[in-house]
Amino acid sequence: MFTITANTRRAKPEDAGAISRVHEASWKHAYAGLVPYAALARMISRRDVNWWANAIRKSTLILVVEMDGEIVGYVTLGPNRVSTFPHEGEIYEIYLRPEYQGVGLGAKLFADAKLELKRRSYKGVVVWVLSDNDHAIGFYQNAGGRAIANGSEHFDDKKLCKTAFAWD
Fold first, then answer.
1. CA distances from 122 to 18, 89, 118, 129, 150 (A)
2. How far apart are the first and last CA of the chain?
3. Could you tell me the sign of the dihedral formed by the alpha carbons of 52, 132, 103, 110, in that order?
4. Cα–chain-centroid distance for residue 122?
5. pLDDT single digits (tens) 19-45
6. Domain range list for the chain
7. For residues 77 and 63, is the Cβ–Cβ distance under 8 A?
8. How much is the pTM?
């Protein structure tokens, strides 16, 4: 028998390559068929290694989750961007490599992100998710989130609805 450990920590500039690979794999997995192909390809290509390294150097709050020293997921978080919501914190994105989904790492990373926002004195958390992303909707509902708002986003000429989930 052996033990596999999962560790969450703040991202460092040298993590940019691994985060970029997680981003590409997870976005292709999550959004293929939802977001138009050309728009998805552009969004992925913009977030290359240099983009991530620059974000980390500019103090973007990024946490990574490692399995036995290998980065398999990340979360970006900070202040809520919608001033009409009473929730002060926001999780902008949370992604795992597809082969690591469904084993509890997403729940761990999400809980650690909420704790980090609380540690920084943010009261409440909001997350936006595409309304057709059934997997993500289920994840946030199972995590106790409640839908508080709807919106939309355009990807090329396709309008996609999104839902905000919140935790007080």
1. 28, 5, 5, 20, 22
2. 40
3. positive
4. 18
5. 999 999 999 999 999 999 999 999 999
6. 6-167
7. yes
8. 0.94
